[in-house]
Amino acid sequence: METARTMDPEIAQHIPRLRRYARALVGDRYRADDLVQDTLERACRKFHLWRQGSDLRAWLFTVMHNVFVNQVRARRLELEEFDDAPAPPTQMERIDLLDIEKALARLPVEQREVILLVGIEQMGYAEVAKALDVPIGTVMSRLSRARERLRALLSGAGDADMPGTGLKVVK
Amino acid sequence: MNEEQLHAYADGLLDRETRAGVEAALAASPADAARVQSWMRQNELLRASFDPVLLEPVPDRLRLLRIRRAWLPYAMAAVWVVLGVAIGVGGSALLRDRDAAASASLARRAAMAHAVYSPEVRHPVEVGAAEQDHLVRWLSKRLGSDLKAPLLQALGYELVGGRLLPGENGPVAHFMYQDGRGQRLTLYVSSRKGDPRDTAFRFSQEGRVAVFYWIDGKLGYALSSELDKAVLLKVATSVYQQLNP
């Protein structure tokens, strides 16, 4: 590390949330922290681009998204399934948790990002659209697909690819 | 009712009026209701699965960035953490308590709830301080005990509001306070199983979150924040005194 940059404490306070999102996004603990580290370094370099007074958390998630997308592209990193230690499930709840992590790993990256920003980060749809730099309609269709796919996976309906359901008007 | 509204309903993004409309429509459409239910369950599972990451200590390599120029405050913080743990460990070694494990899990659950909700910008609480009477009545009813929201203005903390959480032994009341700089503390109140009893204060450092917790009759209390231990103790003492006048 050749340059010493002090991380702004304002950025530092978001590290736990960035780590939570990264862990859910890439599964493996070390790869997730690699992603957080790259994000923090980039955020510190680009901190002057953040508009004072705007939402810092949202900006950091945008930075992480960009870093992540670049990594996926550059390494053509086909995100493999999470390598779970085969822990013996003891309770119902535990089984569910393992299942959701496995099911999550089977979602396409774009859908995974959306369902995590909404479900874990509790962002509004417009916020997600901004963070990922896509139209809100795209956010909604990805969310819809992700949820239907997870539902099928978790109910054991399986491995078969769900036909894309897209946005449809009910009633 | 369109698909987007169903998702927004599942994610708690609707205002009260639209919510009621969607609820009415869902009552008439069991298939949609089942879908929405499963989406909400997915959100719960995702959070249950990944929220524990919030409590993990941040690895050194992620902190290195900030250690360079400003190492002193962090070194001091580390000293406080070590002291806190030493006091916590020393203190708890003195306590011979059959439900030590159960109370330790109270501290952990409280710390987790603090870590999840205190950074929340949009939904820090379900019911705001403006409706304080309603809040306390509602939570008291759900827990089956007369609760009080302690007053902490004298220490610089205003009530933000509260929410209901699921706990080990049923519903949990969660009150949130905030000072002028946005520093938050949370009070976690849960019902206990077994005979009413009392314990002394205990301290636990759960990752970044410091927790003072105690049992008072049928209820377990835990006060969490990222403040240092001495400051938090002052607040905890005040809370305790108000609840036991």
Structural features, described:
The complex is a heterodimer of chains A (171) and B (245). In chain A, α4 crosses α7 (125-132) and α7 (125-132) packs across α8. With 171 residues, chain A is an all-alpha fold. Chain A is globular, with a radius of gyration of 17 Å. Chain A folds into two domains: 1-80, Orthogonal Bundle (Rna Polymerase Sigma Factor, Chain: A), CATH 1.10.1740.10; 89-159, Arc Repressor Mutant, subunit A, CATH 1.10.10. Chain A contains eight helices and no strands. By secondary structure, chain B is of the alpha+beta class. Chain B has two domains: 3-52, no CATH class; 56-243, Phosphorylase Kinase, domain 1. Chain B is 48% helix and 21% strand. The termini of chain B are far apart. The chains are: A mainly alpha (171), B alpha+beta (245). At the A-B interface, α2, α3, α5, α6 and α8 of A face α1, α3 and α4 of B.
Please tally the helical runs of chain B, counting DSSP H or I stretches of 4 or more residues.
Answer: 8
Structural domains of chain B: how many: 2
Helix content of chain A: 55-70%
- Backbone structural class of chain A: mainly alpha
What would the CATH topology of the largest domain in chain B be? Phosphorylase Kinase, domain 1
Beta percentage of chain B is: 15-25%
For the termini of chain B, the CA-CA separation is: 52 Å
Assigned CATH superfamily of the largest domain in chain B: MucB/RseB, C-terminal domain
Q: Give the overall form of chain B.
A: globular
Helix-strand pattern of chain A: HHHHHHHH
Mass-distribution shape of chain A: globular
